[in-house]
Amino acid sequence: MSDVESSGRRGPYAKTVQTRRTILDAALEVFAQSGYRSGSLRNVAERVGMSEAGLLHHFPSKSALLAAVLEHRDDHSTEMFNFFESTGRERLTNLVGLAAYNATIPGVVELFTNLAAESTAADHPAHEYFKDRYHRTTALVTDSLEDLQSRGELLPGVDPKSAAQRAIALWDGLQIQWLLDRDSLDMAEQLKAYFDSLMTEPL
Amino acid sequence: MSDVESSGRRGPYAKTVQTRRTILDAALEVFAQSGYRSGSLRNVAERVGMSEAGLLHHFPSKSALLAAVLEHRDDHSTEMFNFFESTGRERLTNLVGLAAYNATIPGVVELFTNLAAESTAADHPAHEYFKDRYHRTTALVTDSLEDLQSRGELLPGVDPKSAAQRAIALWDGLQIQWLLDRDSLDMAEQLKAYFDSLMTEPL
Q1: What dihedral do alpha carbons A41, A44, A47, A53 form, nearest 10°?
Q2: A154 has which bridge partners?
Q3: Where is each HTH tetR-type domain found (chains A, B) (predicted)?
Q4: What's the CA gap between B93 and B154, in Å, rounded?
Q5: Residue A37: its pLDDT value, please?
Q6: Would you call B184 and A134 a contact, using CB atoms and an 8 Å cutoff?
Q7: CA distance B57 to B61
Q8: Which of A188, A190, B125, B193 makes the best surface tag, with the fewest CB within 10 Å?
Q9: pLDDT, block means (10 residues), chain B with 203 residues
Q10: SS (H, E, C) A96-133
Q11: Contact B176 A177 (CB under 8 A)
Q12: Cβ atoms of B194 and A197 closer than 8 Å
């Protein structure tokens, strides 16, 4: 507290950022553990030692909190797997790595799977977020496949954008099957098999 | 009514079957139109000119009604596309046809997408239904790919079961992207592109 108070105008802002981050980490844990429907704002507030009213000061609604958790989670994935500073081949390898990592956090996978499905309703609070997210992730994979293509490493006849949409779709569907039955398949291995089927040399 | 009454013991049973079918058709329409969350038992009951208590006599809960709607829907698809009496190649062509047909009934696709995601929770009333459904559909596609393989029409290195799991996963994920943005992709075309990528000759 004293740090914050002594640092003038930037202090309270920095504290707000830190508080939001603490809340988002707690919310992710709560939603991942209890599911997004059962996970309550009160649980999240309790976990960070705050009142529900205090929490609502930072996030005006459960859906606003959810949206922020999703973006927070995306930032985390991006940091961990560095999708930008590498070749297309490296980026796809990183995506397969992310699929393997996701298998260690089933609650988060469950959260995303349920929200993606729910958000297909036009009036859902995360509708625009997911629409935008699919465009972004498709662009990321398209770009990676185009890089492979420019190096002559993509099989003839493969259209990068269409293959990218299939890759993202495949990943979503693998998550459903895996959540229903963890022993049914290996998400990362299946995603890799798909990418390999597009390329002259496997990942 | 008189037919039913005059036909003795089979009569009331036949009437029950017919009533259940009428309810299921109405429930599918209600859930497809209003979504499965907002669609209420009362809406369904009203549509078939029945009280809610009368409806509950046939289906003890909303989740039981949902499960029955899902099975009813599967039966309908199976009848329409005849997945059994044909070669593997014909069966896969029929699946692509089903994907094209689904694009005409977005409410049903939304219902399935949401329920599949929700049902990943072990305590969801449709959990076992979906687990079993994935096993069945995977087996159906595996069998079709094995038939192609036995005719030398599958590319070397393609494992039928693993490719079948990817096909089903792809389909689920395509539905999500399509529901979020109908112009983003053609589900049938994308599914066909995937099957074609496994085969020596396109479908």
Answers
A1: -50
A2: A199
A3: 17-77
A4: 15
A5: 67
A6: yes
A7: 9
A8: B125
A9: 47 83 90 72 94 92 85 84 83 94 88 88 84 94 96 96 98 97 96 96 95
A10: HHHHHHHCCCHHHHHHHHHHHHHCCCCCCCCHHHHHHH
A11: no
A12: no
Segment A83-97 shows an average pLDDT of: 88
Q: For residue B5, what pLDDT is reported?
A: 44
**Per-position DSSP letters for B118-161, written without gaps between them:** HTTSTTSTTHHHHHHHHHHHHHHHHHHHHHHHHTT-BPTT--HH
Tokens of B122: 């072990």
Residues of A in contact with B131 (CB under 8 A): 180-181
- Enter the DSSP assignment of A84: S
Delineate the domains of chain B, giving CATH numbers in brackets: 1-65 (1.10.10.60), 82-203 (1.10.357.10)
Amino acid at B143: D
Strands (E) located in A45-189: none
Residue type, B70: L
- Token pair for A201: 């040399």
Question: How long a stretch of residues is chain A?
Answer: 203
User: What is the value of ipTM here, to two decimals?
Assistant: 0.84
